[in-house]
Amino acid sequence: MFSTAFLDLPALQGASGTVTLPGSKSISNRVLLLSALCQGTTVVHDLLDSDDTRVMLAALRQLGCGVEVAGTTVTITGLGGRAWPAEAIEFFMGNAGTAMRPLTAALAVQGGDFTLKGVPRMHERPIGDLVNALRELGCAIDYLGNAGYPPLRVRQPTLRLDKPIPVRGDVSSQFLTALLMALPLAAQDRAITIEVVGELISKPYIEITLNLLARYGIAVERQGWERFVIPAGSRYQSPGTIHVEADASSASYFIALGAIAAGDPSKGAQGNGIRIQGVGADSIQGDIRFMDAAAQMGAKITSGPNWLEIQRGAWPLKGITLDCNHIPDAAMTLAVMALYADGPTTLRNIASWRVKETDRIAAMATESRKLGATVEEGPDWITIHPLPAGQWQRASIHTYDDHRVAMCFSLAAFNADQVPVRIEDPKCVAKTFPDYFEALFSVAHTSAQNIPVICIDGPTASGKGTLASRVAAALGYHYLDSGALYRVTAHAALQAGLTLEAADEAKIADLARRLPVRFEGEQVLLDNVDVTDAIRSEQGGMNASKVSVLPAVREALVDLQHSFQRLPGLLADGRDMGTVIFPNAPLKVFLTASAAQRAERRHKQLISKGFSANIDSLRADLEARDARDMSRSVSPLQPAQDALQLDNSSLSIDASVAQVLDWWQGKSR
User: Fold this and answer.
1) What confidence category does residue 575 fall into, taking pLDDT thresholds of 50, 70 and 90?
2) CB 454: neighbour CB atoms within 10 A?
C-alpha cells in the first residue's frame, strides 16, 4: 500500500490483463456483525482487509467476541446466548459508516453503557434519523456533541414494540440496514415492523442486507419498499461458513479502465481488455449494475459466474443522462468516464453523495475543474462536460480522505494529452482497497519515456544508498541499488554451483538476466530471501569484483537494470546510472562528500557492527578506490553533464532527502 504524501501517476497509455478484487466492504462488515450476533462460530472467507473492517473487528473484540484472523479468513465466535459486557466501553469507529450505523443500532437495542466516536469527518456525518427511529423503539441514546451527529452514548433501553418503527429512507440506506440487523435481537415474542418515510434510496444495498439476513436465519417480509416486517421468534443462526463476494464498487474502476484504455498490442490477443476476477453479473451487490451504465457509455462487457471482461467499444465514450440512485457509490466513476465522452454526462438522484466520506458532489466537481473540465452541480445532480485533446491540465487531486475520490481520479492519467496526475494522500484507498494502485499498475502500461527515473550517483560511502532508498519511499517509487546487483549475481552464481571465472561467463550472464532480486529500503531480497548481510561482507565485495569484469555479465545486468523502470517510477543509485544506464532521466544527482567525512561514516558503521577498523586506513582505501573508479575505461565514475551536485559532508540525511525532493518537485511541475 502506498503511504506517501502524494503519488504522481505518469501519463498512462493503455491497460490489459487480469485483476483480482478484494472482498466487498458492504458485505464484509455486515457479515462480521451478523456473525457476532449468532451463537457459536462462523468462518468468514475472503473478508476484505481494510480500515473499515479493522474498525469493526476491533469493536467486536471489545464486546467479547472471539476473533481469529488468518489472512482473508476470519473466525468469529458470536455473542448469542451469552451476556454482553456490563462495563462501560468506548468504541472508535474511524470514518466507517458501514460499522458505525449498524453497531450503534445493535448496541442500542441490546443495551449497556457504550460510547461511539470517530474521526472528525464521522462527527459531520448525519445519524439523527437512525437515532430518532431507535428512540421510537425505546432506546436510550444521547448526543455528546452536535445533535443529529456522532459521538453518541448508548444506555439501557426500555423497549416499546407495540407500533411500527418509522425511519427516513432518503438520506442513507445504512439507517434502514442498521435497524434490519439490530431488531431481530428484540423480536423474540412479537413481530416488529419498520416503516420507511419518504423515498428509499440505494435500494440495492437493502437487498444485500436482506440477502445476508436470510443466510443468517432471519426471513424479513418486505412489503414493497415501504414496510419491512421482522417475524416473531426471529433468532440469528450461524451459516457455519460464508464467503464474501469481491467488491462490485471496486470493480467499477476496472470496468471503466477497460472502457477507457487501449489494449497492449505487444501482447496480441491477450493484450486486449481487462478481466476482473471475483465478481460477475449475478452478484448480490447492486453496484454490479455499474456495468450497464458503462455499456451505455460504450464499454464492451462479457460476464461469467465470477468474472467480467471489458474492452473498449465506442470511442470516444458516449455522454449519458442517468438516474444513479441504484449505484450511488459506483456512479462516482461515471463522472471521470464522462471526461472521455463525446458530450456532457448528467448523473441524477445522487443526494446521498453529499453525506458520504466527504461532500462527493462538490469534490468531484472541484477536482474535475482542476483538470480543465466544465462542471455544473446541483443539490442532487452533477453534469460533467468532456475534455477533448489539447485541453487537459496537469492537476494535483485533493482526495478529502475519501477512497473513492482517489481511485476515480487515477483514471484521469489515461488522458489524450499525456499529462501526469498527482493523487494526494493515496493511502486513503485503504478504507476499501489497500492495494488499489498496485493493482492499477499491474495492468496499466506506458512508454518507458513516461516512467520517471531519478538517478543518484556518487563515490563509495557517500551515503547514496540511504539517500536513494529514503527518496524512493517518499515518492512511492521502485528502488534499484545497482552496486548490489554484482554482489547478488556473484552470490547467486556460487549458490548455483558456478565458478566466478570466464569459463562460466555465459551461464552467469544468463542467470543475471533473470535474477529474482528486489530492494526494500536497504534490504536486498533474492528470491524473497534476505541476503543483505551475505552480500555486504568483504568476501561479497571481492566476489562482485570478479563477475564485474566479465563483459557478458555486465551486458546482462544493463538489461536487468532497465527492467526496474516500472510504474509509477524508479529511484536508481550507483556510479553510472545517470551517465550510462538512464542517460535520459529527468533528474540526476551526483552525491559527494569529503574522503575524511566518508571514512568517519564508514568507521562508525563498522564499529556499530562489532568490527575493528582504523579510520586512517579507511580514508586511504576510499581515496584509492575513488581514483580507480574515476579512471576506469568502462563507465568511469563521473557526474553526468546535467547532474545536480549535492555535497552532503555537513548535511543530515533528512536535509539531503529534502533537497532531492525539492529538486524533483521543481522538475515535475
Assistant:
1) confident
2) 27
Answer yes or no: is 112 within a domain.
yes
Query: What would you measure as the largest C-alpha separation in the chain, in angstroms?
Result: 93
| Grid cell locating 375 | 462542471
Go through the chain and tell me how many residues it has.
669
CA 579 to chain CA centroid, nearest Å:
35
- How far is CA 65 from its chain centroid? 28
- Least Cα distance to 421 among 453, 393, 380, 389 occurs for 393
Q: Which domain holds residue 655?
A: 451-477+568-669
Are the C-beta atoms of residues 443 and 420 closer than 8 Å to each other? no
Catalytic residue among 46, 129, 287, 329: 329
Cα separation, 29 vs 244, in Å, equals: 10
Distance CA 245, CA 24 (A): 6
User: Would you say residue 367 has pLDDT above 60?
Assistant: yes
Note whether residue 1 is domain-resident: no
Counting residues of the chain whose pLDDT is more than 90, the rounded percentage is: 79
Q: What is the pTM of this model?
A: 0.86
Looking at residue 482, its amino acid is: S
Reduced to 3 states, what is the DSSP secondary structure of residue 38?
coil
Q: 562528500: which residue's cell?
A: 593
Query: Radius of gyration of the chain from Cα atoms?
Result: 29
Phi, psi of 390 (to 5 degrees): 95, -5
Q: How far apart are CA 7 and CA 9, in angstroms?
A: 6
pLDDT of residue 3: 87
Please measure the distance between the N-terminal and C-terminal CA atoms of the chain and give it in whole angstroms: 25
* 329 given a catalytic annotation: yes
Supply 296's cell numbers.
451505455
Contact (CB, 8 A) for 351 and 200: no
- Of the three residues 243, 275, 300, the one that is the final residue of a domain is 243
> In 338-460, where does DSSP find H-type helix?
360-370, 403-410, 436-443
Of residues 419, 401, 421, 399, the one with CA closest to residue 410? 421
Is a pLDDT exceeding 80 seen at residue 1?
no
One domain for residues 146 and 282: no
Same domain, 193 and 339: no
Q: Collapse the DSSP code of 18 into the 3-class scheme (helix H, G, I; strand E, B; otherwise coil) and give the result.
A: strand
Does 268 score more than 70 pLDDT? no
